[in-house]
């Protein structure tokens, strides 16, 4: 990487880290001088800190956007203002110039753009932290979507990961009781390893396509392997109505309630039955065709779940439905949770906090956003030291599905979805 660019990126990341640190420490230092102690209400500070991070990420892009996205999914560790601000990272990413994209595609495919694509639109239809997607037409006339990884991404990844590790280590040394950020950097590194390999993404897409091969209501685009590499992914162009566009759905005669329940059925089948799932169901990756079929897109973050995970999750749901506290403890332990003290009653307290958000005081099949928020709030406040990353991803999936349901004015019941999936 160009030394000047390396210095600029490193300086921007360090500057943002210092600004965030001082946002919290200066009021503490002033409070100590005046004998007031720590500020009790910090939501405004959390929001300002998150905005500093968001501005920096959108400026230098690359891994910093991905890091903000990871934080934006970790409601078990970070306060809600962080989650609310940093979730914008999914939608606010500016695209790269077309000449950079053309050069990357031609380098990867080993021939001029026009030799492969009869038409290739200059403006992307989507832009994310690591890649952007362009509409194109192959020389044989087939319409495709071409996902192109940003050039020079790998040296940026190495630089940014090294900077984040360094800052996490410095922070840990400065603070007496720090939030352990190094596991987040490790999680980010793991996610990046999955998402920067488009050949792996193609494999994941084909695996989920095969899972629903006999299910005519689930659409997964076909990958064109001849025009795909580790950094360019050419796939069938599949379009539809954005899953949160209630007016457009109803205009096509599609009931939002049916869409929500179908989404829950699809994800229940992947998570509880197949043990392999599409872990990023935000509204930009989900569409509905005029016939009501659901389209799944972007399989970079697809995950294999540990053996027995689905059974443990089902046991947790069933124990909360039957108010069986012994089964609650067993389910949390089977899912990989641990506590500092080893006291398992912490798990019971967490489960009851979730159930308290239900009108009946027990789980009745609906993972509402309020329930998942309460779960992560409880985890953050209780001495839980090991929260399985797979559980966080699954919890995020249910939270996103609940958010979609809320936007559509509907509710999704996982127990009904399980019955429909079994029947199918």
| Element-by-element helix/strand order | HHHHHHEEEEHHHEEEHHEEEEHHEHHEHH
Q: Helix amount, in percent?
A: 55-70%
Strand content: 5-15%
Could you give the distance between the termini?
Answer: 52 Å
Q: What structural class do you assign from the helix and strand content?
A: alpha+beta
Tally the beta strands. 13
The count of helical stretches stands at 17
Q: Tell me, what's the shape?
A: globular
- The overall pLDDT, averaged over residues, is 85
Give the tally of structural domains: 3
Which regions are unreliable across 5 or more consecutive residues at pLDDT < 50? none
What integer value in Å does the Rg equal?
A: 23 Å
Largest sheet: 5 strands, antiparallel
Description:
The protein has 424 residues and is an alpha+beta fold. It has three domains: 87 residues, no CATH class; 119 residues, Phosphorylase Kinase, domain 1; 185 residues, no CATH class. Helices cover 56% and strands 11% of the residues. The strands form four sheets. Strands 1, 2, 3, 4 and 6 form a five-stranded antiparallel beta sheet that branches. Strand 9 and strand 10 form a beta hairpin. The termini are far apart. The mean pLDDT is 85.
Tags for this entry?
13 strands; about 425 residues; alpha+beta; four-stranded mixed β-sheet; about 55% helix; Phosphorylase Kinase, domain 1
């Amino acid at each position: 990487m160009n030394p000047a660019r390396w210095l600029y990126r490193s300086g921007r990341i360090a500057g943002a880290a210092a600004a965030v640190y001082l946002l919290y420490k200066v009021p503490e230092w002033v409070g100590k001088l005046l004998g007031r102690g720590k500020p009790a209400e910090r939501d405004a500070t959390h929001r300002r800190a998150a905005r500093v991070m968001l501005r920096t990420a959108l400026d230098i892009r690359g891994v910093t956007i991905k890091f903000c996205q990871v934080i934006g999914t970790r409601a078990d560790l970070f306060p809600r203002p962080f989650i609310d601000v940093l979730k914008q990272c999914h939608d606010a990413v500016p695209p790269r110039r077309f000449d950079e994209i053309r050069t990357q595609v031609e380098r990867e495919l080993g021939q001029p753009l026009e030799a492969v694509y009869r038409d290739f639109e200059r403006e992307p239809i989507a832009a994310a932290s690591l890649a952007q997607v362009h509409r194109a037409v192959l020389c044989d006339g087939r319409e495709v979507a071409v996902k192109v990884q940003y050039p020079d991404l790998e040296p940026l990844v190495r630089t940014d990961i090294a900077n984040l590790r360094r800052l996490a280590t410095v922070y840990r040394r400065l603070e007496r009781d720090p939030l352990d950020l190094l596991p987040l950097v490790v999680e980010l590194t793991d996610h990046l390893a999955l998402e920067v390999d488009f050949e792996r993404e193609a494999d994941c897409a084909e695996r989920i396509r095969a899972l629903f091969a006999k299910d005519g209501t689930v659409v997964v685009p076909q990958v064109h392997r001849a025009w795909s590499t580790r950094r360019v992914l050419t796939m069938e162009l599949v379009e539809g109505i954005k899953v949160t566009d209630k007016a457009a759905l109803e205009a096509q005669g599609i009931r939002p309630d049916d869409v929500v329940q179908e989404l829950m059925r699809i994800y229940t089948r992947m998570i509880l039955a197949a043990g392999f799932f599409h872990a990023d169901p935000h509204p930009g990756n989900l569409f509905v065709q005029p016939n009501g079929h659901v389209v799944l897109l972007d399989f970079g973050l697809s995950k294999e779940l540990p053996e027995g995970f689905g059974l443990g999750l089902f046991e947790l749901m069933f124990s909360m439905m039957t108010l069986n506290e012994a089964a609650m403890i067993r389910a949390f332990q089977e899912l990989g949770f641990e506590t500092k003290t080893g006291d398992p009653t912490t798990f019971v307290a967490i489960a009851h906090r979730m159930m308290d958000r239900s009108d009946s005081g027990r789980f009745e099949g609906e993972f509402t956003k309020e329930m998942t928020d309460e779960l992560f709030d409880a985890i953050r406040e209780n001495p839980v030291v090991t929260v399985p990353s797979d559980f966080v991803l699954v919890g995020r999936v249910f939270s996103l599905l609940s958010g979609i349901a809320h936007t559509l004015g509907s509710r999704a019941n996982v127990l009904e979805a399980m019955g429909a999936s079994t029947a199918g």
